[in-house]
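Record 1 of the preview.
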Amino acid sequence: MKDLHPIGIPHSIVLENMFAKTYDSTKLEDDESRLELFYRDNGYFKAHVTSADTKIVETGGGRFRLPLLTNKPGKGVDVHLALEEDKLYYLNTVNYVGVKAFRTPETLFASTFGKPGDVFSTAKLRKGFEDLRKLYGNFGYINFVAEPDIEPVPGTNKIDLTLTFDEGKQFFVRRIDFSGNTTTRDKVIRRELLIDEGDIFNTRLWELSILRLNQLGYFEALKQEESADIKTDTKTDTVDITLKVKERAKNSIQLQGGVSGISGSFIGLSYSTNNFLGLGETLSISSQIGTRMDNVTFGFTEPYFLDRPLAVGFTVFLTRFNYDQAREASILAGANLIPLYNQLGSNNLLNYTSDSKGFTVYGSYPLKRSFARLGLSYGFTTQSIRTLTTAADVYYQYLNFLNFNGPNSLSGIRSSTLIPSYTYNSVNNPINPTGGKSLSISTQFSGSFLGGNVNQIEPVIDARYFRKGFGKTHVIGMHLSARFLTGYGGKDAAPFNRFYIGGENDIRGFDIWGVSPIAYVPSSGTVNVYNTDGSPRQQLYIDPSTGAKSLVNVTQSVPSYQLVFPGGDMAVTSNFEYRIPIFGPLTMAFFFDAGQDRILNTSQLQLNPGRIAQLNAEFPEASFQNKAVVAAGTQAIRTSTGIEFQVLMPVVNAPFRVYWAYNPNVVREYLQPPIAADRSYFPNSATYNNALAVFGQQQPFFERHSMFRFTVGRTF
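->
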């Protein structure tokens, strides 16, 4: 009873087509036919409505009314339908007439239309005709027609089904032309087509050709029924195809600059195109100079090297990055979070300067007649890191990832990396997908056998899936990503390659890179010594150069644990979106994100042997273990859900979006560092209590429950 559903908005111009109307007598016959069709689809072939009665009744009114709830008098309609189901019918025989293209239709089409003894379903019959049209279209029979003859066997509940086929002629492609491609060369379009002039006109290959063209992103979305003008010539059994395209904006030029009390000043210029000179090549150039970062990058990709489907490309870069953890979180969150991070203590933040340069070359080749590609890339990077805080000193200078001793282990880092990959991608549009799936599997190998001094392995899996939603234009999207990192050959993985998650690229309700395990690593510090009465203990100091005398506080070294944000060696994120186009370029999306960043192998966060030996020699009672201590609760799963509005901007080929997120699962705890020194280290209780206040104090870590943010691009 689709048309007579009792819930509706009868007087709304805007929502009239979104919700069913109230009673409409002209639609009663349509609903009767729909009810009969439902029964026939389920085997009741002779089911029919015998009568339909309507009765007008009074509604509403009465002596009692609830506030804010309307109960006005009115009229309603009760609809009563009488239906005769009759018998449940089964197939008796299935005969095929006029089949010439296939030798054994009884066997080939048995699963399509059913076999004797199966329930007879008109829904299966309709779907079978659609499947046959596609099957014959694969062999060039584009005018195929099938007619059913349904004969119930008298006195039984069985049906004899005869299918008469008019296969028509087999058509071949005579000519393929293009229109509307003012920039893109004909050969760029032609090489994506899976059929050529002289081939059988295979409708399935033509459908896949349209999908391949949509994946390029060069044109407005092509629809198979509307984008091609196909003319048939029955005399020569050929077709002429004219493919009509509309070019999208292919170039993007951006000039950026600004001054901020948080992020400092910067100026940048970038240019990129995904269809360079109309040849389908990708070119990008960008440069930036500023307080945070100096960067120059140049990249180029040729998708058809030597007119073969071999995609090759390269990227070269030069970067200097001044990383301030509190400032980075503030920039990416769009708010000043520096006071929040300073609650943890400025020396507990990973602040450092990184200089790096390198290049990457890559290539990929498609597997025959599929959306899969095999790829291989090689990259070489040199990097040096200068630490700026105590946490960075402990974390970077003394971690054993290069198996070097001493504080110079972060200079001359050479990463030589080989990455084999497998990708499958049938997603129908790179910018605004409505269907398809993709899978990417790769493993990064970095090692001294390739000429570097970083030994690590990083497998990565990334999958996406899009399909039609409950509404005609609605889209369901799902995404899963998983990564793992480990060192080998006696070396730990490079600490700056560990994983941080959070932000609009994975878990929308959290700060970018704000989700990381928090750990403590063995260290040492200095505290003032106090007298028994709590006053600072002082001693006489004579300046050796001037002979001046003064009183200075007495200090002592104590064992401690330093808080660090090391990042995880395993990160898993998943995303779900339900996208509803509103009008034009505006889309509303409901989303749910979840992710976890964990340290699976704490042995990969070890200090170098020289440093741990030095600490245990200085503080033997501390008995430091050579691994990090992970703060309880900081590796928990985070989740985020909310609503997002996306506006697709053709100039930048990416959606502008505003979203509000609520985070059901967050970490809101006071972090308690391990206590390495007991009372026996100190001369009195006052000194001990002061040391606890400095190195044993709980530190607040409270993630937000909600977030509102503006950004550009998609999560997936």
